[in-house]
């Protein structure tokens, strides 16, 4: 993602203290039990989590611990079995209907028969925006992820990293205050992933949207996050929340600093504790 400055977007630092109702996300004693033919699967157990506006939160934990489930619960893609979830002070459904968030899936999930531009336009058109307006917004979003030159291409003509940037542009089309990302760079090679991490970090720094990001990578979590939420193996519980001590503006070289390594060590220890 080449970062293009956008003067129309106000640079909003998160307020020091946000009233409870203005929290981006509030999760209270949330449990999710999936029905299954043999024994029900308890995916989340009594999870409590508050996310303030403008935070970058990573959810990290072993495979199957419920990271995706927690993200889906916040996004109204999965019902909770018990507990309560609020997004921007309203129910997840109301937040979804108000287009409060954009969602980026593990795989880009683009329509192969639509051009890049038409893929980004689609949710806007479904919402009823007229073609010219949808096209203008889609073009702007593509420019922000550095893909202005590729709007006429089809997804299969792009690399995996470029396809994921199209997905990010599509998720941003409604200018959501919250961006939810489910391991968006997990399938990419390390160099591409580093580049996208750096650009996502810059995007967050510039626009201060709230981001909830699922990852398996300790280094990715530490590099990107303002807080790292470490989860235990199933049933998913929160083992520890680690607040970053790194500056908001980060470059990849930070990963070689003692401060970064110390944070990575804390995350690794918390993951290990979760197994006990
Ligand atoms: N629809 C479903 N029905 C039954 N079980 C499910 C369903 N979706 C998820 N699960 C189970 O719930 C648990 C949590 O799954 P989830 O996908 O949230 O974990 P995760 O931490 O995101 O895993 P990964 O890191 O491998 O993507 C897993 O054991 C999974 O098999």
From TrEMBL:
InterPro entries: AAA+_ATPase, ABC_transporter-like_ATP-bd, ABC_transporter-like_CS, ABC_transporter_ATP-bind, P-loop_NTPase. Pfam families: ABC_tran. Keywords: ATP-binding, Cell membrane, Membrane, Nucleotide-binding, Transport. GO terms for molecular function: ATP binding. Residues 27-258 form the ABC transporter domain. It comes from the Bacteria. Belongs to the ABC transporter superfamily. This is ABC transporter ATP-binding protein. It comes from Curvibacter cyanobacteriorum. The lineage of its organism: Bacteria, Pseudomonadati, Pseudomonadota, Betaproteobacteria, Burkholderiales.
């Amino acid at each position: 993602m080449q970062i293009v400055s956008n003067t129309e977007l106000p640079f909003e630092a998160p307020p020091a203290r946000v009233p409870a109702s203005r929290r981006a996300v509030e999760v209270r004693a949330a449990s999710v039990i999936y029905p299954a033919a043999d024994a029900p699967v308890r995916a989340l157990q009594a999870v409590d989590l508050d996310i303030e506006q403008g935070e970058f939160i990573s959810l990290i934990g072993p495979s199957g611990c419920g990271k995706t489930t927690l993200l889906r619960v916040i996004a109204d893609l999965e019902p909770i079995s018990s507990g309560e979830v609020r997004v921007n002070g309203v129910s997840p459904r109301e937040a979804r209907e108000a287009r409060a968030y954009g969602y980026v899936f593990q795989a880009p999930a683009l329509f192969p028969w639509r051009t890049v531009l038409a893929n980004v336009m689609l949710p806007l058109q479904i919402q009823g925006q007229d073609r010219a307006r949808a096209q203008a917004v889609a073009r702007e979003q593509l420019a922000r992820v550095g893909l202005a030159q590729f709007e006429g291409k089809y997804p299969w003509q792009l690399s995996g990293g470029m396809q994921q940037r199209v997905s990010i542009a599509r998720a941003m089309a409604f200018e959501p205050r919250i961006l939810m990302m489910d391991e968006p760079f997990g399938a990419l090679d390390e160099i591409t992933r580093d580049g996208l991490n750096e650009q996502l970090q810059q995007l967050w720094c510039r626009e201060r949207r709230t981001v909830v990001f699922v990852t398996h990578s300790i280094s990715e979590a530490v590099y990107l996050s303002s807080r790292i939420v470490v989860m235990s193996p199933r049933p998913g519980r929160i083992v520890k929340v680690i607040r970053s001590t790194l500056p908001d503006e980060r470059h990849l070289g930070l990963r070689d600093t003692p401060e970064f390594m110390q944070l990575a060590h804390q995350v690794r220890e918390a993951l290990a504790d979760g197994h006990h």
